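Could you join me in thinking about how sequence relates to backbone shape in a protein? Would you write everything just below, so we can both look at the same thing?
***
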Amino acid sequence: MLSQLTTDKLSHLKLPTFIDVFNEIMNNPTVTLTLEESLAMMAEREILARENRRVKRLHKAAKLRYPSAAVTNIDYRQQRKFQGHSLKQLTHCEWVAKGQNVILVGPAGVGKSYIACALAHQACQLFYSVRYYRVARLIEILHLSHADGSYTKLLDQLAKIQLLVLDDWGIDQLDRQARRDLLEVVEDRYAKSATIITTQLPTDNWHHFVGDDTIADAICDRVINNAYAITITGESMRKNKKLDS
């Protein structure tokens, strides 16, 4: 067993897993490892523990609508069809590293938000910073930031997030300030950080949602032209769950 002095030193160095693995080795008489093998085992387990803690922090900070969403649980059954780019290909998250976007288009209930959260969860697993917002809520937060003087700081924070999820895009038409704020957000992120947008509106109808042709052109240019677009069709998943219950 480690002495208290050594335990305290390892704790000070923030190596708690070293302590656990050392005690595990010493308490198991069937384990016969050399000193180098023991150190390698302790280092490997420490790295794994740190990675797990990092993923946990990233996942908590993401504040996903569906925290348990996973790409392995996405339902590809026949009653729901995916048109456009391959959804399975996107689960590897190369597009996040390249600062590209994903647009999920489809009627209410087909699982757009779940899929967005599943892709975001996968990005967390790969150590990308993620944050989820419903568009209406983000607009409200941006509006309040003008009043308390935190607007510039908030834009900087949003720009640094490696994957931003904007859910329910296009529910309500934007007012003058909201459309300008959204333009600032997408402008800061263009070609540098990735964004997922879920919407019931086909991209051809986004101009009406934005409400100003000039700003709509600017937003569409920065979002659509750098995006993988996937259209989801089929019956509502909520309806299917109700029928199954």
